[in-house]
Amino acid sequence: MAKIKATANGSRQEAITKKAAILFRKKGFKAASMRELAENIGVEAPSLYNHIGSKGELLQNICFKIASLFMDQLEVVENSKTTAVEKLDKLIRFHIKMMLQSFDEVFVANHEWKYLDEPYLTNFLTQRKNYEGKMLQLVNEGIKNKELKNIHPHVAVLTILSAVRGLEFWQRHKKEISEAALEDNIVEHLLKGLIK
Amino acid sequence: MAKIKATANGSRQEAITKKAAILFRKKGFKAASMRELAENIGVEAPSLYNHIGSKGELLQNICFKIASLFMDQLEVVENSKTTAVEKLDKLIRFHIKMMLQSFDEVFVANHEWKYLDEPYLTNFLTQRKNYEGKMLQLVNEGIKNKELKNIHPHVAVLTILSAVRGLEFWQRHKKEISEAALEDNIVEHLLKGLIK
DNA sequence: TTCAAAAACTAATATCCGTTAGTTTTGTGC
DNA sequence: GCACAAAACTAACGGATATTAGTTTTTGAA
Prior knowledge:
Two copies of one chain form a homodimer.
Chain A: H1 12-27, H2 34-41, H3 55-79, H4 84-101, H5 103-111, H6 120-144, H7 153-165, H8 179-192
Helix pairs in contact in A: 1-2, 1-3, 1-5, 3-4, 3-5, 3-6, 4-5, 4-6, 4-7, 4-8, 6-7
The first copy, chain A, binds a DNA duplex (30 and 30 nucleotides) through loops.
């Protein structure tokens, strides 16, 4: 009956994956059922399997798409010849943009990765460890340069990543402030502090 | 066979709740089964119901215990006659202590509250909104005082709360640094920034 | 119009879940 | 050691889950 609509430039599988991201974000991977996903699309659950392999595969697609977007951007930033502070600034702004523009997918990658099956789980965690390792190097570089304070670099990376991740709670306040102003405020806070 | 051991100063129900927090944190509320919880305790699943009402009740106990600990401390800080900066400092340090000392429970309260049934869900969210509202007031006070920069107060609260919440990832690095030094680093970063 | 491929459908399966009922074992105060 | 309460056990139920098999409908190009 109701056919699954492929978006202008995207396969049917991608349309399903996008809907899955929204559902997984709202309900969590385990609590989200294929029946409910099908209902959101306007189709019976078994029909989904004409387009996808399994529920787990949907999660894989979401997590790894997001992971590689972040990885690519990190490489771009790493290769830009500029100060450590400027690199961190760019990276923080990218995280904020991703959080606002691909909210559901980023949320799922951040929270539901633990339901990945092996070997995807290990692969994902390795990628994340690499990402954090490279950010750590960046902060270390800044400390050595005397651009940055001598804050424990691991703690600094954690604080930055956690702060931007926390934008998942910003959805309800989206209209309070422009995206540019939001970026500026967070970068200012994280790099220069809250105290005058 | 294996009886459920009540801890020195705690009921059997509390012993089960503690184990449930660990399991809910590891697997997520939906993916954690009563059978697995029972197995971790060394008992058959139906035996648990001699001590608890339901799976959902375990989640309620965890979430509301944590919520009230935070609420109590916030009131203590609010009533201390001191600067806004000092109040924020105290609050941040309390969050960090909670994160390190009651890791599983705080994690569950932060991540699994969405599986609370009504009316507990609404109640919990109301409490959290109140908490954030009072922190917002605190930041506003600091801005008015000219203790704090004119950063969008809502963004500042979000950044602080997210940064401390991110300590859930610190478990694997616990030995790198003392708890006191961790507190100092994060407070320094959040209040005075990363740049020299 | 035809005909093959794509994609929908219905029916069904095996598994797991939280929980209840009913029974037996264990622990404790006399 | 006896009785009563606490807490364990086994068996089972109703419901939800992801997925498969087999069939029918829809689509689109020749």
